[in-house]
């Protein structure tokens, strides 16, 4: 940590529960109210920030405060929200890597590893990821849980324990994940009941067991309607893995939107990946985007994982980034978020549950700049809204003082480094949590370095 950040950290840690942070900067898009000063060419505004009793007490024009630690023009962001992860299968790479690095290889390796999962194995890896996310400053996470065996829902048992154990540190939500055909029959109803009893979100992937995301099978629409009916009967929201491929026949997204419109579905729907949209004919892509806007669907993009996994052919350079049409979706009024997705498992060999890294890489991969506009919300306020969290992701009076403080002033300073010297505040106090050591997983995985 730099000398300046070390001093700032010590000053805040030694203070009380009520103080000013002077001379802060933030993207104006992250302030819920009117900017307290001029907005510069990078979309940033400078101000003084008062914290009291664990909450933001005031956002005032620069120079209002006469005492308190100064950020010296450094940035302050609300704690980020990670709206799409897979915590129950995180960190299995050292035990079951993906030899081909492609989607089918990931499916095969994960299925093989899942056969040996126990509650203890899942919990150790799951909690390791929570510790990493917490130390990085994340305040809320939605995780998809492997739900192939609804009669022995191990991941769901672990989730409920950790959700309760981590309450007050990370708000934890869950969504089921299983191929669409798994929701047919008695097991499908049982799985929907498990989701409902856990206060969670009904999720699936728009492919059939053993298949990949390609041409829609003839039975797709009846299965999709049945999936919607399971959610409707239980008042559940939906979170769906959609068209995660480079196949032009992968066209589930428009059918999901049309089904939601036709059925008058009122609960929130989030669709993740949607990769194939970027290689569809323009007219079809525009029609899909319009249907998503009409249906009120939110799109969540996993840029690091999809760029890693998609269009991977041995000995051939990838021809596309594997991500969806974020700018076109956003222009049509469709909410767009970014998230971590997989971490150190066969779908993505890397990652550390750090939403600052996700936003930094998303800016580069998806060109979320020139202008940056309101894209900073994609790592906080937008996924928070998809999760029904009203205060998270915003800088506003009365919101919890769960903040990230950076030495970086402008956006290129912020996005050029990992910001490893960030200061994390929770309820206005310095968070002392440290990143967990990789070696903590060795005994669980039965391996050495990953």
Automatic annotation (TrEMBL):
Keywords: Hydrolase. InterPro entries: Amidohydro_3 (IPR013108), Metal-dep_hydrolase_composite (IPR011059), Metal_Hydrolase (IPR032466), Metallo-hydrolase_Enzymes (IPR052349). Pfam families: Amidohydro_3. One of its GO terms (molecular function) is cytosine deaminase activity. The keyword Lipid metabolism does not apply. This is Cytosine deaminase. Residues 120-430 form the Amidohydrolase domain. SUPFAM superfamilies: Metallo-dependent hydrolases. Its EC number is 3.5.4.1. It comes from the Bacteria. Signal peptide: none annotated.
């Amino acid at each position: 940590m730099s000398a300046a950040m070390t001093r700032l950290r010590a000053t805040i840690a030694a203070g009380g529960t009520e103080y000013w942070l002077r001379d802060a900067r933030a993207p104006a898009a992250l302030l819920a109210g009117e900017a307290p000063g001029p907005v510069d060419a990078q979309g940033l505004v400078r101000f003084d920030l008062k914290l009291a009793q664990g909450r933001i007490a005031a956002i005032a024009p620069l120079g209002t405060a006469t005492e308190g630690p100064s950020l010296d023009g450094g940035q302050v962001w609300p704690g980020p929200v990670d709206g799409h992860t897979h915590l129950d299968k995180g960190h299995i790479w050292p035990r079951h890597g993906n030899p081909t690095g492609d989607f089918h290889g990931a499916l095969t390796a994960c299925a093989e590893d899942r056969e040996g999962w126990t509650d203890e194995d899942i919990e150790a890896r799951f909690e390791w990821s929570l510790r990493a996310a917490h130390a990085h400053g994340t305040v809320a996470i939605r995780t998809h849980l492997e739900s192939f065996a609804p009669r022995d829902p191990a991941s769901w048992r672990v989730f409920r324990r950790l959700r309760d154990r981590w309450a007050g540190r990370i708000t934890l939500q869950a969504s089921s994940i299983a191929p669409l055909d798994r929701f047919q029959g008695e097991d499908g109803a049982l799985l929907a009941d498990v989701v409902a009893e856990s206060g969670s979100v009904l999720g699936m992937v728009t492919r059939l067991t053993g298949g990949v995301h390609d041409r829609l099978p003839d039975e797709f629409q009846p299965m999709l309607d049945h999936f919607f009916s399971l959610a409707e009967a239980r008042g559940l929201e939906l979170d769906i893995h959609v068209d995660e491929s480079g196949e032009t026949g992968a066209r589930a997204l428009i059918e999901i939107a049309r089904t939601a419109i036709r059925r008058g579905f009122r609960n929130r729907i989030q669709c993740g990946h949607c990769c194939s949209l970027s290689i569809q004919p323009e007219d079809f892509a525009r029609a899909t985007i319009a249907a998503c806007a009409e249906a009120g669907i939110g799109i969540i993009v996993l840029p690091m994982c999809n760029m890693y996994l998609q269009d991977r052919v041995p000995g051939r350079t990838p021809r596309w980034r594997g991500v969806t049409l974020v700018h076109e979706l956003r222009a049509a009024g469709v909410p767009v978020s970014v998230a971590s997705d997989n971490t150190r498992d066969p779908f993505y060999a890397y990652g550390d549950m750090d939403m600052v890294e996700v936003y930094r890489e998303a800016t580069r991969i998806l060109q979320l700049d020139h202008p940056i506009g309101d894209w900073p919300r994609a790592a906080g306020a937008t996924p928070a809204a998809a999760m029904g969290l009203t205060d998270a992701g915003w800088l506003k009076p009365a919101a919890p003082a769960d903040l990230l403080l950076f030495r970086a002033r402008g956006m290129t300073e912020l996005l050029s480094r990992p910001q490893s010297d960030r200061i994390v505040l929770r309820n206005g106090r310095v968070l002392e949590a440290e990143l967990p050591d990789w070696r903590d997983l060795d005994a669980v995985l039965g391996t050495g370095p990953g």
